[in-house]
Amino acid sequence: MRATGVVVEHNPFHNGHLYHIKESRENTGADIVIAVMSGNFLQRGEPALVDKWTRAQMALNGGVDLVIELPYVFATAQASDFARGSISILEAIGCSSFCFGSEQGTIEPFINTYELITSQKESYQLLIKQFMQTGMSYPKALNEAYATLTVNKESSSYVDLSKPNNILGYHYIESALQMDAQIQPVTIQRIVAGYHDDIEEDQSIASATGIRKAIFDDASIQEISQYMPLSSVENILKWKSDIGVFGSWQQFWPFLRFTILRMSTNELSTHAEVTEGIENLIKEAAKTSDTFEDFMSVVKSKRYTWTRIQRMLTHIYTGFTWTDLHHHKEPTYLRLLGMTQNGQKYLNENKKNLALPLLSRVAATKDSLLSYDIHATDMYMLGIQSRINPIGMDYRTPPISI
Amino acid sequence: MRATGVVVEHNPFHNGHLYHIKESRENTGADIVIAVMSGNFLQRGEPALVDKWTRAQMALNGGVDLVIELPYVFATAQASDFARGSISILEAIGCSSFCFGSEQGTIEPFINTYELITSQKESYQLLIKQFMQTGMSYPKALNEAYATLTVNKESSSYVDLSKPNNILGYHYIESALQMDAQIQPVTIQRIVAGYHDDIEEDQSIASATGIRKAIFDDASIQEISQYMPLSSVENILKWKSDIGVFGSWQQFWPFLRFTILRMSTNELSTHAEVTEGIENLIKEAAKTSDTFEDFMSVVKSKRYTWTRIQRMLTHIYTGFTWTDLHHHKEPTYLRLLGMTQNGQKYLNENKKNLALPLLSRVAATKDSLLSYDIHATDMYMLGIQSRINPIGMDYRTPPISI
């Protein structure tokens, strides 16, 4: 059986994802689609709308055959580490290709860009540093450095790194080439609207951000049903009826605020991604902010992207430190969150060829990478606040099977 | 003006306290009564029912002329440190006497007991150690050691240290004698029922524990009015209407649980009073306990008193470590929480004779002892959860003045 891999968050699963899975299968001629999916905290540094098992269920209903968890360490990391963790896992589970959506839509420019940047690594790094010294955020400085590097080049030969999905795609390619992977990159044109758009009428694909906003605003089922498969709508409704609230910083703010204010600024600065004195601003902002929105309006600055700040907050919330981050560079297991019958068949056929141990049930573990995933689930469920017996879900929840 | 001092928590102020204040004034012939009062966390290791300003107000209405805050470090400490902090403050503010309620009712046996224990210090300590090795809690071992020490003595000459107020009284005497204080000890017979009794009918004095239980159980105003001065009832009703909830571990449990579960057991063990591996039990119990009652039923053992465990929890909740505890042995200021006109007159007359600086307003401070008080108020107000702008009350709240 041939497998293609996709890197997903499915927060929540919508028609754009459905299209991505279907196209991935068709474009690569794969028999099965394997998704590496973030757990309960996401790359934008925020809690998922619904937990990882509910999102795995949506993925399986939407055409994915196997869902493997991207460990917390990579799922909440900046793009290059996120990509390295994801591609390592898809390689380890034996995918012959991985397929990502991009604004670019063709692979060649990604390869060209990788080779250009690699060949001019030193001047590129220097440019980034210089732009950051003018007060730019890292992504903005990177963008400007790249523009400088490609200023006299044929623009269609290189990827446009101002587009969010192109950036992620670039890091996937970089990871695959750097690890000298067997897995082959494939990209498909993204057809979704911009990342931050609200839902617009007369279209069947909206951004996950827009859909989340609609869900938080208690939009009608009819409204969100336009943009999500029926099975996803059902999963959202079941979560709402079982749990009552959705994961968000708004919901988790009392705990996050308490945690920030309980600690000294010295302690705050030990947490991953917290740098350059921003712990002082975080502490001061938490003092005066009764809501997460108030807090972010104080902390947000040109120096840091919203996403970067949220990643700091994720690590403060879960207690994940710089030391924890520096000690974990590669995935050490394949954690199975869900499978179809075809997915199970693939595992049976390939279980001897997997490059990392497959975990379908989690027992008491000494794998520190896995212990962060288990801990992150506990912290997520405490934030949700409405579940009896919220601790240890990872030990009690078997993979979703459809 | 002659001043007498009392050591109080007033949680909440009731008829027993009213009697204590009145008797203290009469017995010592003092012109004013000065109370050293715990802040928002108490010696039993729990959050106060209502905040320190509300309790100061009750005290002033009940006959106290000056309320000075006992700093967090002493207010939440074991009896000997609690007593040392309290007596130091009453000495520093110039009280000629201090007056405490005891089951004993006369001073001489306290002095005799202090001299006996001091003269046989080594064998007493050894006995305590031996009893603890049999699995007894510290207070129980101390009791047994003391019984051994006094076995052939005339019992009426020594204080009965199995009674809770006698124990506290003993530590007051010990503190005063050890610091060679000018302040003279006075005791009055306690007329209240046992500490843990519920409210009983046909009496006008009930324990604070019983009254708190009645308040948590939403007892009628008529019921609690039997046991408290009208002004205290009014303060309780005002708090209830302004804030909505009372301070308690039941109320604070979501934050305490989150804080325990977020940390590693190693981090837990850095907090003051956490010893001998109890951090493991605390962590495991927090995993399975949706309520504070469930939690305590798992953690409670013969080795540790309820109070001792609650003190650990207080320090975990506020982030107060062994290092913090070991660096603060003596009060460094007199923090004014409230005063009557007579109290103010006393301060005006004596301001040059005070042995420590008087703080009536708190500005940004480098006094770490004071910073714990300010931090404890913030943590208390976050636990209460119902106040807009809960942080920095210490900076914004002037002393209560009546």
What topology emerges from the helices and strands here?
The structure is a homodimer of 402-residue chains.
Chain A lengths: L2 E6 L6 H14 L3 E7 L13 H10 L4 E5 L1 H4 L3 H14 L4 E6 L5 H12 L1 H13 L4 H12 L14 H15 L5 E6 L18 H9 L4 H5 L4 H14 L5 H14 L2 H4 L9 H11 L3 H8 L6 H13 L3 H5 L7 E6 L1 H10 L7 E2 L8 H17 L8 H4 L3 E2 L1
Parallel strand pairs in A: 1-2, 1-4, 2-3, 4-5, 6-7, 6-8
Antiparallel strand pairs in A: 3-6
Write up this protein.
- The structure is a homodimer.
- The first copy, chain A, is of the alpha/beta class and about 400 residues long.
- Chain A is built from 20 helices and eight strands.
- In chain A, strands 1, 2, 3, 4, 5, 6, 7 and 8 form an eight-stranded mixed beta sheet that branches.
- Chain A is globular.
- In chain A, about 50% of the residues are buried.
- About 0% of the residues of chain A have low confidence.
- At the A-B interface, helix 12, helix 14 and helix 19 of A face helix 12, helix 14 and helix 19 of B.
Brief sketch in words of this structure:
With 402 residues, chain A is α/β, with parallel strands linked by helices.
Largest interface by Cβ-Cβ < 8 Å: A-B, 24 and 24 residues
Shape of chain A: globular
Percent strand of chain A: 5-15%
Number of helices of chain A: 20
- Note the main sheet of chain A: 8 strands, mixed
Question: What's the gyration radius of chain A in Å?
Answer: 21 Å
> How many beta-strand elements of chain A?
8
